[in-house]
């Protein structure tokens, strides 16, 4: 089951600009089923924990500040080959490198403010999903 699921966040930049509906449309039109969905806001401790893998990177402070500055949409998505297919749908981390037709090409503005997150492995998809959603919120 875990191999068919991924975790995403619509980041504060995209929420601020009113792109929740547009991004969710692209996700469901690409064949992903919504397993869990909520509008929420990361605390400082949440963001530091979620991005702990990046804590030695020079952009860590900027990343945590950005991800806590306003609400995000958290979601679990299901589809065959979910992690890989979702990363293809969102496009490269830097929107300047993102392919036509990807979410980041359409909605991201910079490598930091890149509109959406997508898990990078099945293992992280499960960890990130369980960070945000209780079992009874996963449908
Ligand atoms: P994401 O892949 O969702 O998770 C890690 C995030 O770190 C990444 O998106 C970017 O938002 C951010 N990030 C990566 N590289 C940089 C960078 N050079 N400067 C600022 N933020 C970055």
What does this molecule look like?
The protein is an alpha+beta fold and 139 residues long. It has a single domain, classed as Alpha-Beta Plaits (2-Layer Sandwich). It contains seven helices and four strands; from the N terminus they run βααβααβααβα. It has helices at residues 12-16, 20-29, 44-50, 60-67, 82-90, 103-107, 122-132, and strands at residues 5-10, 33-40, 72-78, 116-118. Strands 2-3-1-4 form a four-stranded antiparallel beta sheet. The protein is globular and about 35 Å long. The model has no long low-confidence stretch (mean pLDDT 96). The chain binds adenosine-3',5'-cyclic-monophosphate. Residues 54, 59, 62-63, 93, 111-112, 114, 117 line the site of adenosine-3',5'-cyclic-monophosphate (CMP).
Topology of this structure?
Blueprint: E1 5-10, H1 12-16, H2 20-29, E2 33-40, H3 44-50, H4 60-67, E3 72-78, H5 82-90, H6 103-107, E4 116-118, H7 122-132
Antiparallel strand pairs: 1-3, 1-4, 2-3
Protein name: Nucleoside diphosphate kinase
InterPro entries: NDK-like_dom (IPR034907), NDK-like_dom_sf (IPR036850), Nucleoside_diP_kinase (IPR001564)
Subunit structure: Homotetramer.
């Amino acid at each position: 089951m875990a191999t068919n699921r991924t975790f995403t966040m619509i980041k504060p930049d995209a929420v601020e600009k009113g792109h929740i509906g547009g991004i969710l449309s692209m996700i469901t039109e690409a064949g992903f089923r919504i397993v869990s969905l909520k509008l929420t806001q990361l605390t400082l401790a949440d963001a530091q924990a979620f991005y702990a893998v990046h804590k030695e990177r020079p952009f860590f402070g900027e990343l945590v500040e950005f991800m806590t500055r306003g609400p995000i949409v958290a979601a679990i998505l299901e589809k065959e080959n979910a992690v890989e297919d979702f990363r293809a749908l969102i496009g490269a981390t830097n929107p300047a490198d993102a392919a036509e037709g990807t979410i980041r090409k359409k909605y991201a503005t910079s490598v930091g403010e890149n509109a959406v997150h997508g898990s990078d492995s099945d293992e992280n998809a499960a960890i990130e999903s369980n960070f945000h959603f209780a079992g009874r919120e996963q449908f």
